[in-house]
Design brief:
Helix content: over 70%
Strand content: under 5%
Structural class: mainly alpha
Length: 54
């Protein structure tokens, strides 16, 4: 009975670890993309402002 309990606990820990790794990887890829989108929006706004000043 004790072995089955340990196996269940190990499986739960394994599943939680896999979920944490996947979330970490998606955040790692998503954050730079969002940062780049923000920079592009800022640069587009600056270009439009400079073109309107002419």
């Amino acid at each position: 009975m004790e072995i089955i309990f340990m196996f269940v606990v190990a499986m739960i820990v394994l599943v939680l670890s896999v979920i944490a790794i996947i979330r970490g990887l998606t955040e790692r890829f998503k954050n730079p993309i969002n940062e780049l989108k923000g920079r592009i929006s800022y640069l587009e706004k600056r270009v439009n402002d400079l073109e309107n000043d002419k």
